[in-house]
Amino acid sequence: MARSSLGTRRLEDPDGCNLEPACCLYPEPWQQPCEIATPALDLEAEPSMDVILVGSSELSSPVPAATGRELIAYEVKVNQRNIEEICLCCGSFQVHTQHPLFEGGMCAPCKDKFLDALFLYDDDGYQSYCSICSSGGTLLICENPDCTRCYCFECVDILVGPGTSGKVHAMSNWVCFLCLPFSRSGLLQRRKKWRSHLKAFYDQESKSPVEMFETLPVWRRQPVRVLALFGDIKKELTSLGFLGSGSDQGRLKHLDDVTDVVRKDVEEWGPFDLLYGATPAPGHACDHPPAWYLFQFHRLLQYARPSGSLRPFFWMFVDHLMLNKEDQDLVCRFLEMEQATIPDVRGGVLQSAVRVWSNIPAIRSSRHSALPSEEELSGLAQNRQSSKLPAQRPTKLLKNCFLPLREYFKYFSTELTSSS
């Protein structure tokens, strides 16, 4: 996906002159909006964060002949309509619920679109879609190293002020509307305790069978502690920045044989924040019936899951197409959710696929590649077993599935590297 690299690229005006990056949209003190003269800090913001104060230029009221989102400013400023009665994403008056991050409404179609895109990430580590309307395309990236959110040009221009996206794009270090120390930019008003609003929105509106853990501000995030069964994901987590070289930069314990592991062992090794388990990958010896890996994973899940604690705890079980239909139904019953299939399709040809059960957000998003049929998956599984393919790491298919954990745990590098 095309991105705006705010730290290196500049816009050009119609005469071909470069617009120099600005440290603030208001170079003189008298130009700053009066509402941010004494900003109130959001308790959820990182207290030591360096920010660029991005206020809005005066919003001009669009002419009544405008349609859709272009009418939002007119309805709010001229007709005095409450912005909570307007869909912030499309301008519709058919409001179904409220936007979880910013003051404003949300219609039912935009709600579904927002939920589907909420925790999807690209290979660069940033979220794939606009944090306001969930559109894709060219996006403005927040350059706070602890934030992964993006915004589309249209949302910024309509809700903050005409021409604001161009000014933001020309900046050398822009901080987004959820990271700024003041809560209002034009019509865009960050909700108080937006993290709690986001959890309530997800739990109420999502069709997910599991509740979402409330995301954590950066000052509350700790290094992740991982227990990996039957498959080592150290390279994947290191490439995503979750594991570093120091003893205080994340911890992973890998076990291939758990036959004799009891609850006391897991309690002594833990506590853990992520439990990962999988059937053998292609090329690996399968020393047990495929369902054995499920039973052992489920047993250790009961040991590792925190009792009576609200702290974020995540788990993931992956099937490398080893389980038959009866075994898959067994997994669904034990883990109390349907599987998600994540395919690798290149050139219109199915190259690989995995089945995943997990409580990590966005695993079940419909925006993954077109799902293959069961016949295609069966054929792929048979070809794997007959061709004796070399072992394939889950990096390409599962790597981005771990990225939502950046909302909960420390990561020690913003540059994603290859784990192959």
- The parts where pLDDT drops under 50 for at least 5 residues are 4-59
SS field, number of helical segments = 11
Q: How many beta strands in the DSSP annotation?
A: 13
N- and C-termini, Cα separation: 22 Å
Shape: globular
Instruction: Provide mean pLDDT, rounded.
Output: 78
- Please outline the major beta sheet: 6 strands, mixed
Using only CA atoms, what is the Rg?
Answer: 24 Å
Broad structural category:
alpha/beta
Residues in β-strands, percent: 5-15%
Helix content: 10-25%
Spatially, the strands of the biggest sheet line up as: 9-8-10-11-13-12
Order of helices and strands: EHEEHEEHHEEHEHEHEHEHEEHH
Short description:
23% of the residues lie in helices and 13% in strands.
Detailed description of the structure:
- The protein has 420 residues and is of the alpha/beta class.
- It is 23% helix and 13% strand.
- The strands form 4 sheets. It has a 6-stranded mixed sheet. A 3-stranded mixed sheet has the order 1-4-5. A two-stranded antiparallel sheet has the order 2-3.
- Helix 8 (290-304) links the parallel strand 10 and strand 11.
- Helix 8 packs parallel to helix 9.
- The longest helix has 15 residues, at 290-304.
- The two termini are 22 Å apart.
- The relative contact order is 0.12.
